[in-house]
Q: What sequence folds into this?
């Protein structure tokens, strides 16, 4: 087992090494024409306005949270699935209780609307928290 | 139980150790390194082939011909034509392109992100079985390892989007991460039916279970639950690859290039390569889990040597890739709320149904 | 077992160094990256302890779940890059004394406990054993874990809805 994991580790190291070699090679032979315009942030050719972060859409955080809970459920499901063939009905019943409790969780989150993603064009979600600065005139910059 | 190719190398190592003064660990390290180099090269080449295939297949589907120009003067290769060297030219172009890093970007994280994304994608290749004894690392938790590695890639994507200090990059990265994360749940649940049927997380054992002909392939067992699981896993993997119809994070017409907007030159090439290598990885994983892996569909006919094994797995993997490319150029892009709806409200419940269905089937009939 | 020891020390060094980066860095995203490598180092140590399944779980849950959550939280609430994450320290000397005291206590506890300090001699796969144990000996904790997860899910969703 250690041998296999060692191989995996060597693999990861080689992946990083491959990227490193390519980037170094590129750095050696690439063209270099520095220009101040190249240093600016790209915004389809326009000059960037406003600060460079986004609306705090709490959806992202909620989805990651729900994902984490279900991921922990999945790590319980994997060892059960491995021994499922051997253990039989009792193990199946036990796991079904587990899964059922978590399906109740999914149903709850579903019904309460936590899985909804804001439809484009709808009136702004009241959970939007604006963290942008205002421009000098006091208007919110787009 | 299939043994890794490099356990044969252990015997070779012993012979070499007895013949030379190299220690055993050093020799096995050299073999590991060799295997890693071969697979890295293979993954890179396959990624380039994947890019070329995408351009050609999409071209023919759109009733045009795609790249036809790039060719060489070498006599035999010249006759292939059809712009076969296009991706080589692209690779060279990316190599000599200037690496423009915006002033506002966080240089260290900007540099770290391609490493994480590519190394994580490549690391998953270590457990793929290309033949009966052609596995680099015969991990007992191989399948679980592949699931875990894809979550590593999410971090790389988030760092790429963040370090660019560009609203579009960050937004694309967040959406991409949310998308990958949402579709990981149905994908992992769909894998459970495979594990339940085989009783192991070892990819070599999963293929060995399906050996013996097309009727033993896992996609046809426990009908229709395994087929449902296959479809769920296929759709979820499309989303995890950020491919259409789920390619909002890379929507060229919407947010430029998503999280890799501010990347140029070789760093961009690494993201690009990682995406196509990931495509190939998904192709091989689906073939291994549901379509019998390297075993021949005719049972023992054409199943003898490693050459045939590699042929079969390549055929199956490229068929999956063909379907992925086909879907990209046929289907329109889904909206982000439709995407979340698909993952949480359609795929996850159906994945639970598939798992419970297979469980009930196995319990009632055994 | 010089190779085993050096690999262990390597992973331990990686873990401690990354934890150091995480604690002392002024940029909160750098701290998150330090945390990433800390988790990776701990996963490596789990492998050396013959806990292959737990090592992968470490990567899957901690890196793929908790770190992603952390990064989302950090990135969606920061006012641009480079927010100074430190709070000011008013009373350096009392703080240093308290920290020193806690450190001495922890050090004494760690050094006086008898840890089983040997590498495992047998490296067998653990997934099947874990599955069997979860279904037989540790069934009650397992089912309670599901209730706990349900509670966490409902609570987190509730808080996110309110806040």
A:
């Amino acid at each position: 087992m250690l041998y296999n994991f060692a191989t995996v580790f060597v693999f990861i190291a080689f992946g990083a090494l491959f990227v490193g070699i390519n980037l170094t090679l590129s750095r050696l032979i690439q063209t270099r024409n520095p220009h101040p315009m190249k240093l600016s942030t790209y915004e389809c050719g326009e000059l960037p306005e406003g600060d460079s972060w986004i609306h705090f859409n709490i959806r992202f955080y909620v989805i990651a949270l729900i994902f984490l809970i279900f991921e922990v459920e999945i790590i319980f499901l994997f060892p059960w699935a491995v021994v499922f063939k051997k253990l039989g009905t009792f193990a199946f019943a036990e796991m079904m209780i587990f899964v059922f409790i978590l399906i109740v969780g999914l149903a709850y989150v579903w019904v309460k609307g936590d899985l909804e993603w804001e439809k484009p064009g709808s009136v702004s979600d009241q959970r939007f928290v604006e963290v942008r600065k205002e421009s000098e005139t006091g208007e919110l910059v787009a | 139980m299939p043994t890794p190719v490099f356990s044969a190398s252990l015997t070779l190592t012993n012979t070499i150790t007895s013949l030379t003064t190299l220690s055993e660990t050093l020799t096995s390290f050299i073999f590991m390194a060799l295997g890693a180099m071969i697979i890295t090269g293979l993954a890179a080449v396959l990624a380039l082939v994947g890019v070329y295939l995408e351009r050609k297949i999409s071209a023919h589907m759109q009733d045009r011909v795609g790249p036809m120009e790039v060719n060489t003067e070498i006599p035999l290769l010249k006759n292939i034509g059809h712009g076969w060297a296009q991706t080589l030219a692209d690779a060279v172009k990316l190599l000599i392109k200037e690496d423009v890093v915006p002033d506002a970007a966080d240089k260290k994280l900007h540099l770290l992100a391609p490493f994480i994304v590519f190394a994580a994608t490549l690391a998953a290749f270590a457990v793929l079985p290309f033949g009966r004894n052609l596995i680099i690392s015969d991990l007992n938790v191989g399948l679980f390892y592949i699931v875990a590695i894809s979550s590593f890639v999410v971090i790389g994507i988030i760092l790429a989007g963040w370090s660019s200090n560009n609203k579009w990059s960050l937004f694309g990265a967040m959406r991409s991460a949310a998308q990958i994360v949402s579709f990981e749940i149905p994908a992992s649940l769909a894998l459970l039916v495979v594990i339940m049927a085989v009783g192991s997380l070892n990819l070599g054992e999963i293929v060995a279970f399906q050996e013996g002909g097309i009727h033993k392939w896992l996609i046809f067992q426990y009908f229709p639950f395994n087929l449902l699981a296959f479809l769920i896993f296929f759709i979820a993997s499309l989303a995890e690859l950020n491919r259409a119809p789920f390619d909002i994070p890379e929507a060229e017409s919407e947010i430029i290039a998503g999280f890799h907007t501010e990347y140029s030159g070789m760093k961009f090439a690494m993201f690009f390569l990682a995406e196509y290598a990931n495509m190939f990885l998904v192709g091989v994983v689906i073939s291994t889990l549901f379509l019998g892996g390297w075993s021949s569909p005719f049972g023992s006919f054409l199943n003898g040597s490693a050459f045939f094994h590699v042929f079969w797995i390549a055929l199956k993997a490229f068929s999956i890739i063909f379907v992925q490319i086909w879907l990209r150029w046929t289907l329109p892009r889904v909206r982000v709320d439709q995407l979340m709806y698909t993952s949480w409200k359609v795929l996850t419940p159906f994945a639970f149904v598939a798992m419970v269905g297979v469980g009930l089937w196995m319990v009632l009939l055994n | 077992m010089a190779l085993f020891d050096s690999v262990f020390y390597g992973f331990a060094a990686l873990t401690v160094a990354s934890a150091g980066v995480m604690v002392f860095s002024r940029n909160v995203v750098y701290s998150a990256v330090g945390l990433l490598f800390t988790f990776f180092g701990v996963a490596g140590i789990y492998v050396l302890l013959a806990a292959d399944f737990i090592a992968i779980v470490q990567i899957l849950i901690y890196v793929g779940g908790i770190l992603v959550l952390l990064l989302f939280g950090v990135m969606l609430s920061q006012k641009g890059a480079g927010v100074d994450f430190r709070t000011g320290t008013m009373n350096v000397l009392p703080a240093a004394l308290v920290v020193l005291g806690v450190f001495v206590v922890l050090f004494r506890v760690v050094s006086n406990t008898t840890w089983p300090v040997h590498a495992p001699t047998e490296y067998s796969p653990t997934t099947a054993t874990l599955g069997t144990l979860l279904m037989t000996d540790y069934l009650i904790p397992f089912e309670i874990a599901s209730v706990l997860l349900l509670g966490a899910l409902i609570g987190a969703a509730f808080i996110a809805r309110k806040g």
Observations:
- Chain A touches chain B through 71 residues (CB under 8 Å).
- The first helix of chain A runs from residue 2 to 29.
